[in-house]
Amino acid sequence: MSFFGRIKEDLDNALTHDPAARNRLEVALTYPGVHAVWGYRISHFLWSINLKLLARIHANAVRFTTGVEIHPAATVGRRFFIDHGMGVVIGATAIIGDDVMMYHDVTLGARANVKGKRHPTIENNVVIGAGAKIIGDITIGHGARISANVVITKDIPAQSTLESSEFFVI
Prior knowledge:
- The protein is built from four helices and 14 strands.
- By secondary structure, it is of the alpha/beta class.
- The longest helix has 17 residues, at about 30-50.
- The radius of gyration is 15 Å and the shape is globular.
């Protein structure tokens, strides 16, 4: 898909996921979650061509302007939508599949300061509620629905719905 095709896909995805979104122009100009994803893509490209310092500088500027921190080494799939965005943190070894929707104040973090894979893998078609903390090298299965304000430190099977009363502790 072309660069402009991806932009259109992101705009259409925001319109699909946010009933308050009225048109592509409004989304393109005013949605920090969309801006954060676009900024991540630039930073990730810079990271992939070994301009790592420039990638980190760019990612920091995106974080400053959007309130969303996505490490340039993370892997993010297509049609990733962050609604509201502020406070989202996505670590360096996180993997996010296609068609994932995430609300504000979500963390995809590490449990330990070690080399290698230490952040979560989020499979396709997952929805993550506001304030959820998903910590460690774990997998959230395809189609899972994660409620707001949960802390998850264990794998969640595909097609699961995790309610806030099902609280996983470290």
